[in-house]
Specification:
Shape: elongated
Number of helices: 1
Radius of gyration: 10 Å
Helix content: 55-70%
Oligomer: single chain
Structural class: mainly alpha
Length: 30
């Protein structure tokens, strides 16, 4: 399981959570 860091000051915590969840799903498919 790769560790993914997302740097963004414009996203809310909820958006970050959804984004990280999506990135995790995509990376697990690779």
């Amino acid at each position: 399981m790769p560790y993914i860091t997302v740097e963004s000051g414009v996203l809310s915590d909820e958006q970050k959570e959804l984004l990280i969840k999506r990135l995790t799903e995509v990376s697990s498919e690779i």
